[in-house]
Amino acid sequence: MWSKEYQMLTPYIDSHCHLTDKAFDEDREAAIQRMKDAGMVAGITIGCEDGDIKPLRAILDAHPGFLFGAWAVHPEYPELREADVDEIAERANEPGMVAVGETGLDFYWCKEPLDWQRDRFRRHIAAARKAGKPLIIHARDAESAALEILREEKAGDLGFVMHCFCGSLETAEGVVNAGGHVSFTGNLTFKKNEALREIAGKIPLERLLIETDSPYMAPVPFRGKRCEPVYSREVARAIAAAKGLEFDEVLLATAQNTVRLFRLPIAV
Ligand SMILES: [Zn+2]
Where does a divalent metal cation 2 bind (predicted)? Predict the structure, then answer.
């Protein structure tokens, strides 16, 4: 039985999860039902490689108007087939698809020379421009380098979110100034991440999104468990505490921001 607290019905949205991941093979539909039971009005689920395309299509077709998708070959995967601009743009315009990504730079898992990664990133930005869709940015140990490319490519015109943010205040402000959004995961709730909460406290609420990046990064008090979209509310709770706002206000505002950025065809 789901706990009572999770039956409050302020609408909210997980702006970034991976529901096609095998970690959901045992209870995928139950996890989606728990989202609906908790008052969630949408979730954006991301595919990161060719193998995700079919399951992503299937899950979007099974939950139209509730689950939305994005696809791009992840910057962590040098060895995988990279689609061309036309193919990525076409995919981004399929029913239920709302963005290109995740894309960006990863200097944590991958080491220089990384020209292939920068080329892939620029290709994804070109595809987003062709499709007229916003971008979902992954930047790990590479936040300022990713921001530089986003500025050069004028990605603010398309709209973008730097997801699972764990960079500096300077970069977060740079994202906002470039027309982007900042999204926090469960890492915002981790005890050691006081500096990140200070950053969350300083970024305007209208540019913040919440996410789980599930099945990874379960927030406190679920840390160590398989993460799922319904837990994204714990990220809103941490933002509310950092900003001195009401929890419900942050749930609703981040849902509205997500609808606006990704032009989701739903009302919140
Ligand atoms: Zn992700």
Answer: 138, 163
Contact 88, 100 (CB under 8 A): yes
Bridge partners, residue 61, by sequence: none
- For residue 221, whether the previous peptide bond is cis, meaning omega lies within 30 degrees of 0, is yes
pLDDT, tens only, 128-143: 999 999 999 999 999 9
Question: 18: annotated binding-site residue?
Answer: yes
Short-list 138, 179, 174, CA closest to 155 = 179
Note the CATH number of domain 10-262.
Answer: 3.20.20.140
CA distances from 120 to 48, 54, 76, 101, 217 (A): 13, 22, 11, 11, 26
To the question of whether residue 106 is assigned a binding role by annotation, the answer is no
Contact call for residues 176 and 203 (beta carbons, < 8 A): yes
To the question of whether residue 163 is assigned a binding role by annotation, the answer is yes
Averages of pLDDT over each 10 residues, the chain, 268 residues: 59 98 98 97 97 97 98 92 95 98 94 92 98 97 96 97 97 98 97 97 98 96 96 98 98 98 97
Q: How far is the CA of 252 from the centre of ligand 1 (A)?
A: 22
Q: What is the DSSP letter of 141?
A: S
Q: Give the distance (Å) from ligand 1 centre to CA of residue 16.
A: 6
Instruction: Give the Å distance between the CA of 103 and the centre of ligand 1.
Output: 10
Determine if residue 181 is labeled as part of a ligand binding site: no
Whole-number Å distance, alpha carbon 73 to ligand 1 midpoint, is 11
**Residue 102 annotated as part of some ligand binding site:** yes
Strand partners, 219: none
Give the pLDDT confidence of 185-237 residue by residue, as tens digits: 999 999 999 999 999 999 999 999 999 999 999 999 999 999 999 999 999 99
Alpha carbon 39 to its chain's center: 19
Q: Is 181 helix (H, G, I), strand (E, B) or coil?
A: strand
